[in-house]
Amino acid sequence: MATTVKNLTESSFLESIPPKYVIPRNPEDLNFGEEEEIEQQVPTIDYYLLTSGSQEERSKSIENLRVACLEWGFFTVINHGVPESLINEMLNLCLSFFDLSPADKSDYAEKHVLSPIRCGTSFNAAVDKVYFWRDYLKIFVHPDFSAPLKPNGFREVAYEYCTRTREIVKELLKAVSVSLGLEEDYIEKSLETKSGLQILVANLYPPCPQPELALGMPPHSDHGLLTLLTQNEIGGLQIKHKDKWIDANALPNSFMVNVGDHMEILSNGNYKSILHRAVVNTTATRVSLVTANGPSLDAVVAPAPKLVNCEKHPPLYHGMKYREYLELQQSNQLHGKSCLDLVRI
To answer: Taking a C-beta distance cutoff of 8 angstroms, is the pair 277, 217 a contact?
Structure first.
């Protein structure tokens, strides 16, 4: 197993990062390491009004969601009903997992991308030309639930947390479907989301002595339909909006949600998956908790027929089985929307 960033930072006093972690400068990204202070208000969706408000409040919330998906590909969900204590307990248990000995984690190290539980460092250390300042734990939690044996209590808390977040996604997908002019249950039925894949991902970003030279994660889009993210109090998520990188600062007790590649495919490009990245800092460890939510592994994802008009709106993507797309993206280097580009017509 490749040396984890956590072990690297704890084994000795680092004054500079090893060369393999130095990210080459991208000419298109001139503000890398010296970000502008850009004050922009990320859209906020009130989950309670979306699901339990009056008809007028629900209609307004769906319209707000449509604008957020159309113009941002990103939004913050508040009043979602998941206890803050449960979120914090899940974050702390993930930190405890990273604190386990190498022997305790060895059964999950560097497994195949479709293995139920795997942990590692960077994105895919076997093929990454440059390493990223990140360790991870990835667990398939639906339709079949998996969890590591340690730390104690992880399984029970993860099960409750993933069940609660999956319910949020279910309701968001209904609203997204309506916002696209489709039947409320179109996404659920066409992509078999009742047996859809949910992956719990914990990301650890230890302090970095030269954060201006490294990245926790490179610019990329996510596979799947919608991704939910929460984190400890340390920021680091940046999203690309109108060709500028902006800090996505979380509201207290909220989830940050971004559109995935398969929502872009299904919507025939109306709702685009968003490029985002993770930056690191010199002083504090950031931990983020992600749930990636996708179709059934065997579902073929293609543009919704109602959103395709051969003259004005021709299909923009080939259909592909979700399983094949997932293996393709996770087995190669992570670079922008390069995997989505492979299914463009």
So the answer is: yes
